[in-house]
Amino acid sequence: MDIIGNIYSREAAEQKTETFRVQEFLLDASYFDNYNQTQRENFLKMQVKNANIDKLAAIPDGSRVKVFFTIEGRFYDKEDGTKGHAQNLSAFNFEVIKLAENKPATPAAPAPQETDF
Fold first, then answer.
1. For the stretch 18-45, what's the b/e string if a residue is b when 16 or more beta carbons lie within 10 angstroms of its beta carbon?
2. Among 10, 19, 21, 96, which residue is least crowded by beta carbons within 10 Å?
């Protein structure tokens, strides 16, 4: 599967085990709804694992990308003995559509000068 959006933000990568690392990021996949004539906010929490973390690291926040991903779901046992369900959107590749532009820092206004009147 794939989806187009802007890299909005990312969390720090976490080392879960000796051989498994994961990093979560938010993809802004907001869109214009032609039927209702409104802008629809749509932020997706996605993740990259192991070597794919380096692929995400090469793309600055704000960049427009096509994200190739899989949907992974599983059941697990909760502490209270019931079953829970977890689902992840795991990105495995990125196609950069437009890199975010580095905006030059706005120079600070000069401090006001004291004058004697």
1. eeebbbbbbbbbeeeeeeeeeeeeeeee
2. 19
Taking a C-beta distance cutoff of 8 angstroms, is the pair 91, 46 a contact?
yes
Structural domain of 54: 2-14+21-98
Tell me the whole-structure pTM to 2 decimals: 0.80
Residue at 113 is within a domain: no
Q: Which CATH number characterizes residue 94's domain?
A: 2.40.50.140
33-80 pLDDT, tens digit each? 999 999 999 999 999 999 999 999 999 999 999 999 999 999 999 999
- % pLDDT > 70, the chain: 86
Query: What's the one-letter identity of residue 111?
Result: A
Instruction: Determine how β-strand 31-33 pairs with β-strand 38-40.
Output: antiparallel
For 17-52, what is the HEC assignment?
ECCEEEEEEEEECCEEECCCCEEECCEEEEEEECCH
Domain count, the chain: 1
